[in-house]
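writing this on my phone so excuse typos. first protein, seq and then structure
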Amino acid sequence: MGRTKKVKMAGRFGARYGLRIRRMIVKIEELQRQKYVCRRCGKKAVKRVGTGIWECKACGYKFAGGCYVPSTAMKILEQITR
């Protein structure tokens, strides 16, 4: 399993789809799996529950947001496409 150095999590796709696309997938998945700051309590405990559904594990606040990140700002979308 030491052959996923370039594409990390996207190594599950093997040699399919091309390196550029697999690198984009890694960026997107890293953004969607990290914890974010809660709007209500301010703790870094917001995780993605489903597509566009986000929940704070600390206070239980559940809200709708972006598909990959809780807020869809242009700066965040630019990070994905770089």
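second protein below, same order as before
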Amino acid sequence: MLQQCLRIPHVSTGDMLRERIRKGAEVGTAVEATMHAGALVADEVVNRMVEERLSQPDTAKGFILDGYPRTISQAEHLCRWFDGRGIREVVIHLAVDYNIIIARLTGRRQCPRCGTLYNIVSQPPRVPGFCDLDGEKLVIREDDREEVIRERLEAYERQTRPVLEFLRSAGRRVQTVEADSDPREKVFQRICQALESNDRTENRC
């Protein structure tokens, strides 16, 4: 929704990593084992991948980074990269209760052909178990298994939550948006309001 509103590309590190796995490259094999264990992929691999993507022409007018940075090392690298190119960012922190995260992700299903995501509770397909767009049988991603999700949440506490404090202490613009139980349209509205508030603040500087 944000991508359609702003007309800039959505850059998801998770999608890019899964694409590497699908291609079966040597690095993809190592990435697959790491993701299936619920651990984070090495910083240097993700940093290089993000740099390559953000250097493409379609990001010239802006982009939405999703799932990055996840560690302080990645955040430091990204800040240096942004500063060297005169890029100013806004960080949107979606605050969600852990139990809700687990319920959402364990209920998530994906079409293996087109990549469309569904949730058996909050956003089910018209025909249970099958994609609305191409009729393909939906699957559970390996990284959406409950034991993997819990490991990802533990990794978040160890490595990603400190990123927010690093960004705040570094003077970066961080906006927290409550995203617990409201529908995505409401959350989207809050994100837009946070971005508008940030724009007004920047214009006063």
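Helices lie at 2-6, 13-23, 26-36, 43-54, 72-85, 98-106, 146-169, 184-204. thats all i got for now
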